[in-house]
Amino acid sequence: MKTEIAIIGAGTAGLSAYRQARKRTDSVLLIEAGPGGTTCARAGCMPSKLLIAAADAAHAVRVADVFGVRTEPPRIDGVAVMRRVREERDRFVRLTLEDIEAFPARHRISAHARFVDDHRLRLDDGRELEAERIIIATGSSPSIPEPWRALGDRLVANEQVFEWRSLPESVAVVGTGVIGLELGQALHRLGVRVRLFDKGRSVGLLKDQAVIDYALRLFEDEMLWSAESELETPQRDGDQVLLRWTQGGQSHQERFDYLLAATGRRPNVSRLGLENTGLKLDKHGVPEFDRQTLRCSLDHIFIAGDADGELPLLHEAADDGRFAGLNAGRYPEVRRYPRRAGLQILFSDPQIAVVGAGSAVLEAAGRPYREAGLSFENQGRSRVINRNRGFAKLYGCPHSGRFLGAELIAPHAEHLAHLLAWSVQQKLKVSTMLDMPFYHPVIEEGLRSGLRSLLRNMQMGEEPVPGCMDCGPGG
After folding, report:
1. β-pairing verdict for 224-226 and 193-197
2. Which pTM value belongs to this model?
3. What fold characterizes domain 146-263?
4. Non-local CB neighbours of 461 within 8 Å, separated by 6+ positions
5. From CA 330, how far away is CA 204, in angstroms rounded?
6. Is the pLDDT of residue 474 over 70?
């Protein structure tokens, strides 16, 4: 077979690339080896948020007493919880698959593809395909230490969690990144005995040490959290997992029904036969590429989405696919596309968000910055709704006055983060942000207090009035 454009992978990036490439040519083939439906819908964003929604409901019942609302402790029906997770998950997957099935059949191939050379792909059904341009959009998979696989069905990644028919009694979560923290806290609030393990003191997406320390105190108060622990190779013990670890010079051991490996993800490129091409690969075996064009070292090959090993986020994958599809479609003309402002959100409680450039990025780049801290503990609206746990760091440029970014753990951080990301992308000055309207009483008033402190620390504003009285009580 021959085609102008071959797209390997029909996930978020591959589908986005396909839609753009079709605007330029009808000679497009979309190749998918797996079950399809995108990582987001099948095993990522959507099923995890369904589990978190159940956990939030249970937690709301437990803390209702603070409002004078007397309730019995919630009774968790694990079978019903997981049934809803699977049913809604399957609905999201079905809708995605229906979109793919609406594409012309001549554009779709169900097979695994492997490079024979720079332009040829061999399919596992015996066919061979020659493509003028190729887009690699094969996604990513959980990265699990090989010795752990001896645990058999007692070892799970996030994909297997969403196949459970009920909730187990206990789970060890190794890794405190996005997946580990989101699922660990949700399972804990649904009555599962959970312990999180981390060899350092990391919390999700955070890099600013002051925000990390605050977040760690919150989560250690709520859950069993073994930070700075040295974990031995897990052992299977009947239908349980035996974990031994050292922490603070003391040895510990505990048994769990499952070990949830939240130890990161790796790009799905090892089975593509990249060694048969002239592509330059990095130390992880991932093709080197230009992030603004998505073009690899061979200029007719592009890479998009989680396969490039950079930012495993749906909106980034969609942008990657769009840029790669446009450039593959107009090849040999290739354009550079500006990237959006950085925006990452972790759906713990409180939520965590990283926007724009944080202190670690700014320091690594040698960029001058000033910062200001912001506590939500006495913020008016947050106290009204009993969500007054949170701390943020805001960053600004002392020369231009521009807002540069933020790291925050805060109530409704998903909404605050969008406002801040839009400000970064619009290159707004902190003073301009303060000219925007703020209603009372809302959580966003806390941002105004923080921005005023930041402006002062950049020596561009007055000393903030204690309590921000024009924000109203508790602004």
Report:
1. parallel
2. 0.94
3. FAD/NAD(P)-binding domain (3.50.50)
4. 430, 431, 452, 455
5. 39
6. no
Fold type of domain 343-460: Enolase-like; domain 1 (3.30.390)
Q: Which residues contact 157 (CB under 8 A, 6 or more apart)?
A: 142, 144, 260, 261, 262
pLDDT, average across residues 234-262: 97
Asked if 176 and 202 count as a contact pair (C-beta separation under 8 A), the reply is yes
Residue whose tokens read 């707004």: 428
Report the alpha-carbon distance of residue 66 to residue 74 in Å, rounded.
16
Q: Is 2-142+266-330's fold the same as 146-263's?
A: yes
Dmax over CA atoms of the chain, in Å, equals 73
* pLDDT above 70: residue 3: yes
Say yes or no to pLDDT of 187 above 60. yes
Pairing mode of beta strands 250-256, 343-346 = unpaired
Give CA–CA dist 31/18, Å, rounded: 10
CATH architecture of the domain covering 2-142+266-330: 3-Layer(bba) Sandwich (3.50)
In this predicted structure, the answer to whether residue 335 has a pLDDT above a threshold of 70 is yes
Domain chopping of the chain, boundaries: 2-142+266-330, 146-263, 343-460
Contacts of 318 (CB under 8 A, 6+ apart): 12, 13, 16
